[in-house]
Design a protein that fits this description.
Two copies of one chain form a homodimer. By secondary structure, chain A is α/β, with parallel strands linked by helices. The first copy, chain A, contains twelve helices and eight strands. Chain A has a single domain, classed as Aldolase class I (TIM Barrel, Alpha-Beta Barrel). Helix content of chain A is 41%, strand content 14%. In chain A, strands 1-2-3-4-5-6-7-8 form an eight-stranded parallel barrel, surrounded by seven helices. The mean pLDDT of chain A is 94.
């Protein structure tokens, strides 16, 4: 990479949450088995569960059972998605170390997804921050590059929302391309408004997730959400493609000489477990065809 | 794109040849219908047929029948793949304006693919150049980033082969990633040896085709082979993924403000024809989910 500013990329593995949430529900023990395979890869951040209503997202039921079954490795920061103060209280009680919260850059999407106005979601996030008691709280802003309901998202609006969320006490921001509408040009435009001290959460609907990550790294971004195997897609967003596959990003960064701390072979092992857990194949390309050096 | 040296990218549409060659054979009239849909997109270069043995590649049979059926638009340069002097003679007799020839950067692949040594293939290309009579002859060098038989390909060897081919009279070189082993780092390494006055022919086996094209454009490459719908893969190369989809590259470049002269909507129309012609869906992501602005 001609921009040599970034030498280390931090990956947060979201496969157990964003990867599985649209799947048919699987037993908590199976989810724990997948998580254990992931924590053996060297990844330092795992979003393991979500404390959402099991009626809303059946595949995310029983987070406490999952968390009781995993190997709680101390070299991993354990994240959970929480939708409200009750979810935050449950997560903290379960020993979760860091919280993700969501809000949409598109008010229409926010309304349809969580039935709240942006202002109400901001207030709820403030309450979660209070419950977090100093733990990291990452606000994952959906639809940062566009929304299936409202088309383009203005980068300035995302930046303003991000600033308000930081005022509410969130410790970091992650900008999400919920339905895969980003291109490198849009990545640059958004980062120009929001700065590069953000995470990116990319979906591969239109085949651009990897090139968008690449462009973001060139711009100076060093935090990414990815999902082993490339499963995923919001249960609320029609046409949402899978997450950027962890193994595809690690495969590219290994060849760039950019350190992730993650062992590609072990990610592929985790994908093997994932296939067993979900009972079908996965979209990730390197998982399907093997690393370049295996050809 | 922060590198603003490239403002125009020339795309050669290879869907009728590389896209269809691994498919079940379809009627010449159907292939012509696909070609006519492609020539209406604004693309200025189309590889329409191949004059290979129909025993070796049944889907490429009857090139003369295909060529007799197409709308022979004057704003398109019509290319054909020719394997030897007899193929070149047939192509010239059929009115083809420009020839692609293939040779592999990996001697083992060359041997298994065309049962010739590299030296024999070079000599055959020299004969084809003579028959071309001043028409453009593009040497498409396969396995430039690696081979399923021999692993890594040394960039210096590709550059040396390219120099010899130019000495033989080919007018241009296209570097092919036959089995999708390129990454941006490998693109930079190869271009450092070969220069940027080359075309790239990328396959998406490991999900890197688009990011590789993006990196190549940043480096100064302005010529690409792509296939509408992203069909393809060599019938001789196990594990070869589809070609870089035309619509995925145009979709990205449109948003970058890089001109291709190609109308994305018309490419998607051509993909609709392609689905009818081959009788199944295609892997291209923008063709599957629509352009970002349609979300």
């Amino acid at each position: 990479m001609s921009n040599d500013a970034i030498s280390y990329v931090t990956i947060r593995e979201v496969g157990p949450r964003d990867g599985l949430q649209s799947e048919q529900p699987v037993a908590a023990g199976e989810r724990a088995r997948f998580i254990d395979a992931l924590s053996a890869t060297g990844v330092r951040h795992i979003e393991a569960v979500s404390f959402v209503s099991p009626k809303a997202v059946p595949a995310m039921a029983d987070p406490d059972t999952v968390l009781a079954a995993i190997d709680w490795r101390s070299d991993v920061t354990w994240w959970a998605l929480v939708p409200n103060r009750r979810g935050a209280e449950m997560a903290v009680a379960a020993g979760i170390e860091a919280l993700t919260v969501t809000i949409s850059a598109d008010p229409v999407y926010n309304e349809r997804n969580v039935h709240m106005t942006i202002a109400d979601s901001e207030a709820a996030i403030g309450e979660i921050v209070a419950i977090a008691g100093g733990r990291p709280v990452d606000a994952v802003v959906s639809c940062c590059f566009g929304s299936p309901y409202s088309g383009e998202t203005a980068p300035g609006g995302v930046a303003a929302l991000g600033a308000r969320l930081l005022d509410r006490g969130v410790t970091e921001l992650t900008l999400a391309d919920t339905t895969g509408m980003a291109t490198p040009a849009r990545v640059r435009a958004l980062l120009a408004e929001c700065g590069t001290d953000v995470g990116l959460h990319l979906h591969d609907t239109r085949g651009t997730a990897l090139v968008n990550a690449y462009e973001a790294i060139r711009c100076g971004v060093s935090r990414f959400d990815t999902a082993a195997g490339g499963l995923g897609g919001s249960p609320f967003a029609k046409g949402a493609g899978g997450n950027l596959p962890t193994e595809d990003l690690v495969h590219l960064l290994d060849d760039e000489g950019i350190v992730t701390g993650i062992d590609l072979g072990r990610v592929l092992d985790a994908v093997t477990v994932l296939r067993e857990v979900v009972g079908h194949d996965v979209p990730g390309r390197v998982a399907t065809f093997g690393p370049r050096t295996s050809a």
